[in-house]
Amino acid sequence: MNLPAAVLGRFINNKYLLAMSTTVGSILACTSPIIVSYLGWKGLTGLRLFQGVFQAFMMPMVHGIMSKWAPPQERGRLVGFILGGIQFGTMIILVMAGFLASSSLGWPSIFYISGALGLAWVVFWMIFGDTSPTNSKIISEEELKYIVKNINYHDEKEKRMKTPWRHILTSLPVWAVVVAHTAHNWGFWLLLTEMPQFFSSVLKINIKEDGLLSALPYLAMWCLMFPVSYVADKMIHGEIASITTTRKLWNSIGMWGGCVGLAALGYLDDQEVTAIITYIFIVAIGCSVNCGFNVNHMDLSPNFAGILMGMTNAAASAGGLLAPLSVAYIVKDMNSMIQWRQVFFSGAAILFFGNLFYIIFASGNLQKWNEPAESSERAEDNNKQKVGLETNNVQD
């Protein structure tokens, strides 16, 4: 649903779509225990399907909104801070779930509290949030002028632009983001879904039963995100490196760092502590991609950042689907380190070549098709008139 959600976001206020997405997802979370009690696992599966449909609005809407708020030299920090909420939420619920389940409220409280927090956020968002600084009622005039001056976008209230699908689908920088996003998702979901099984089967460590150990990689990722995004933005603001070079550098640190870590995991069958540290390193270093491909949509086209995120996140979902399936195909004996090594090596190879493609074809430059067609045609007419005037002057 990512791409349809992004397309819908071109016609409906992103603020309301994001609120709707979180509201429905939160209500479904609150009703999960009731559904389970009446319909069992089949009912829960159907409920999760509907949650996925509505939660697909989140990333396209968030990116579409962020593109209108963050100047180029501040995008890394904004994206890192906001998307860091995913890691923060994961960390909190992994720690709290065990305490909630063992309390007098029981396991249903996990769903009730999560859903209630989501609904509380919606209220906060509707009061204080907005799609762009020009629509905000609480922004200062000074900040508004600063943002509008530094961001190349057109408020959709003033001008509704047609989506330049042909240019987007034939753009190599866009496909570089698609490939990197898909490869990263493969590695991320490989870790998220399969590492508990690896630790349990090979290393005889049950990290599922240790909330703190499960949350530690995401805590490390969240903490590392702040200095990484700060340094990345300073590189651009201080003109130490171009936007293109900065994006490629941090993307390489995140993906090739994970590549090295996955390859190393294949040889740590009898080194529990080292394996855990390596696992934490792979997850934590992954935050660097927030200053790589994950912010690149806004560099290429602030006006169509939501569409680009919908497109790349939809394609990247294939990585999330195929990674667990590949493990089921390769690993027949869960205790076999040789078979797990093949899993880690295949994941490392995908991260390596995904980032290599990104390095070759990615760009941090604003694309020509970001501007409305009318503006491009007007600029072209002006250039023709200028050339004609210069020709007449020469003839005179």
Task: Characterise this structure.
- The chain is an all-alpha fold.
- It is built from 15 helices and no strands.
- It has helices spanning 2-8, 14-55, 58-66, 75-101, 108-128, 141-150, 165-169, 172-201, 211-237, 243-265, 272-285, 293-300, 305-330, 337-361, 373-395.
- Helix 1 packs antiparallel against helix 13 (305-330).
- It is globular, with a radius of gyration of 23 Å.
- It starts with a helix and ends with a helix.
- Mean pLDDT is 87; it is low at 375-396.
Our estimate of the beta-strand percent is under 5%
Radius of gyration: 23 Å
Give the number of DSSP strands.
0
Instruction: Measure the end-to-end span.
Output: 62 Å
Q: What is the string of helix and strand elements?
A: HHHHHHHHHHHHHHH
Please mark out the parts with pLDDT under 50 across 5 or more consecutive residues, or reply none: 375-396
Q: What do the pLDDT scores average to?
A: 87
- From the spread of the alpha carbons, the general shape counts as globular
* Protein structure class: mainly alpha
* Helix proportion range: over 70%
Note the main attributes of this structure.
globular, single chain, disordered C terminus, 396 residues, mainly alpha
Q: Topology, please?
A:
Elements: H1 2-8, H2 14-55, H3 58-66, H4 75-101, H5 108-128, H6 141-150, H7 165-169, H8 172-201, H9 211-237, H10 243-265, H11 272-285, H12 293-300, H13 305-330, H14 337-361, H15 373-395
Helix pairs in contact: 1-13, 2-3, 2-5, 3-13, 4-5, 4-9, 8-12, 8-13, 8-14, 9-10, 9-11, 10-11, 10-12, 10-14, 12-13, 13-14
